[in-house]
Amino acid sequence: MSGRSVRRTIAMAGAFAVTAGFAVTMGTGGAGAAPATITWADGGKNFTRTVSNAAPLEGEVVTMSTTVAGADTINWFEDQRNTCLTYKKDSAKVAGIPVALQSSGAGVLRVAGNWDANTSPVFEFQYVVGANCPREVALNTGLKYGAVASSGENLNLGPAYVVPKNVSTTVLNPVGPLKAGIESTLTAKTLGGRAGDLVKFFSGTNEIGTAALDATGAAPFKWKPAANQAGPHDLTAKFLATPFAIESVSAVQSVTVDPGDQTTQTTLIMPASAVINVDVVIEAQVSPFPGAGTVTFKNGMTELGTAPVGPDGKASVTQNFSVPGNKSITAIFSGAPGVGGAPGFAGSTSAAKTLSITDPGATDVATTITLNLPALAQKGQYVFLRANVAPKAVGGTLQFFSGPEPLGNPVPVKDGLASQSYMFTVSGVRDVRAVYSGAPGYLPSEASGTVTVQDEPVPGEPGAGSSMPTFGS
């Protein structure tokens, strides 16, 4: 190809190498769409080939045009380019007139006809820059042609073009209220990236997590601040540079992570066994005392009932089971808000406990309860509530009630005896009921009595005036 002259008008200085034996001149290209042009002679014909934009961005349309001038007739013309450029349908023209493609292949388009080169016909094709185009490297173009007098090709002379990296933009969506111990979603959106590209999230200079862009350009990250992360945070999202896009960082969002709720523990208090068709008290203790919220009791997935949590952190339901078998009981505390800006109380779930419900057998012994209750009790002072289960039952528990209210926790029955220390807080006559759960070989039973609660001390009672007797059972 010696003797040919070459001229290039290039948008980016240094983007193209100087081919030995060809003269190259640099034009003053702007930041916009600057073309690249080369000229040469071949087979008695002069060729001028231009790429409309030597630095096209992803998604932009570029035009490859070649002028052929000389005494010859062009029978066919092939335009060659990198396969990352997609042909724009019906864009092929010769001498300004649309023409149909004779054939198309990987990186090659052909048109066929009879064009007089004396009229300097222009062969023109348009392409869309694909997302898979390599970035910041020179991509050459070329051509082949067939003519009556002579045919030829110039597959890699050019002109070349360079696809810059995408200029990305990253935005951190508005961040809602944040609380320590509670999971929230931070979402960044990036223009110029692609699915799978990574976004890092920062609090100041501390990285808090990473997420990948989805097909919509969004990167959601679930953040659960720890208790020691309560306080102010300056959040940003940083899109990481890739071979196809430059990095970008969102604007800072200043947020505050509120102190988290206190953790709680919920514990079940209930008998290990009971018989069918007998009331069973199932109680839960929430610690520390939240003073609010509810506890939902479940048998497996079946809800047994929901009760409010009292000032002492306790909640209970009374359940009657008509079908024997093992019941898997759990208690779920709902959580409770704080008061006066104080941290609230997080929800919690108890460990499951098994309640064995049996059907009394023909040989089970009927039982009776004899109550041993104080006739008088002073409000605010502990007294003992005692019961004797006859015959001497072995196993099972006994629960004291006043109306529907449990008086303390179920206590075990040993050698037919059970006792509970309890403090009445309201004066008046209180009904007291004792319910024996039953046990293998012993049927359940219950008995009732009364205790009169007064404001004044009870004279002559052992321990009168003391605030807490020794607990016994």
From TrEMBL:
Residues 446-473 are annotated as: Disordered. Residues 271-358, 375-453 form the Bacterial Ig-like domain. InterPro entries: Big_3_5, Ig-like_fold. Residues 1-33 form the signal peptide. It comes from the Bacteria. Keywords: Signal. This is Ig-like domain-containing protein. It comes from Rhodococcus daqingensis.
